[in-house]
Amino acid sequence: MLQLKKKTDMRDKWNTIVLAAVVTIFALSLIRYPQQSLEASIRGLNMWWEVVFPSLLPFFIVSELLIGVGVVRLLGVLLEPLMRPLFNVPGVGGFVWAMGMASGYPSGAKLTARLYQEKQLSLIEAERLSTFTNSSNPLFIFGAVSIGFFHNPHLGIIFALSHYIGNVLVGIMMRFHRTREEKKRPQTKPYTFSVRSAFHALHETRLKNRQPLGKLLGDAIRSSVQTLLMIGGFIILFSVINKLLYLIHATQYIAQLLQHAFSLFQLPKELGIPFISGIFEITLGSQMISEVNEASLLQKAVVTSFILSFGGFSVQAQVASILSEANIRFRPFFVARILHGMFSAFFTYVLWAPLYVRTHPVNETKGAVPTFLVKQAPLWLHECFQLLSKYGPLVTLLSLCVYIMLLNKKAVWKK
């Protein structure tokens, strides 16, 4: 017992030293490269200001309202026959899964934590649900990556299929997470499908959370904006960290260590630095991968699929912060992201020949893509990005003003 305590104390001391050293190096790097840090910070702020905030805020607010009025409970009862056998989670997980795919990172984590706090999920079920309900949304996959970076809308089909198929496989694998502990608990009554029971659950939830619509809406806005402010901080922070790691040549050193692993998969070493950048922040990494001329389009697609599914440390830090507030463990989510990345990369390679080469054989060999393919992109994708770029900052500013008014009103009520 005493020896175990000594080992724990020693490990804690080493963790303290490492953490202090990392923070000190980060602070010194900020002092050494102030201009580059400012530019990276502005880049992260623009991404959050123009795209992330206005695109996620409606999903967050609507999700909070749906939970508050009991619609999620209704969907949970109806979706139980699908979610329980497939993923070993309650039917409410179907709502989280759908909203996570539609709105992207880190919506799944936020909704999982919210439902756990509402006691609609057990701790083990929340850990399972968080592993496969956080994914890139279709707008980012098709619009930003395939069209914006690769100038090839047809790649979006490969990215999306491999991404979401991999996500389903992760959910099926994680259904066995901590099943032994669940067997020790008392068994619940077997589920019987009933529409009447679903509407009864909706009514019970509404009666339990009997609040005026204005109060419900105000709480939804306040909670959503608080989460998005935290997400913005992480985006800016990791944008700066990514830039500083490149400036102090840490990215290059790590990329050299990965050369042997890349050679096993017949990937060129030029993809090393973009891959490391993508491990920290998926947007920058995907853009850098698309600009590597030494790699074939297939090679770039495989690496990009892994990064999109891994999520990057920026996204994972956001998820870790959200899950920690609800005391949900982060480790299962991290393990699932590695599995998701491997599955997505594998399915990109498998689906390449039947879905891309047979229809676009000319573009398969090298990274260059004919410009006429951009014109074949769906019109709504271009319009969505134009609207976000034009009106996104205005939506963000107005939402922050409403958030400040709600906080001020809440403070007045407390007095």
From TrEMBL:
Transmembrane segments: 12-31, 51-75, 87-105, 155-176, 228-248, 301-322, 334-352, 388-407
Positions of the Nucleoside transporter/FeoB GTPase Gate domain: 51-143, 228-323
Entry-linked Pfam families: Gate (PF07670)
Keywords recorded for this protein, A-Z: Membrane, Transmembrane, Transmembrane helix
Keyword Hydrolase: no
Keyword Transcription: no
Name assigned to this protein: Sporulation integral membrane protein YlbJ
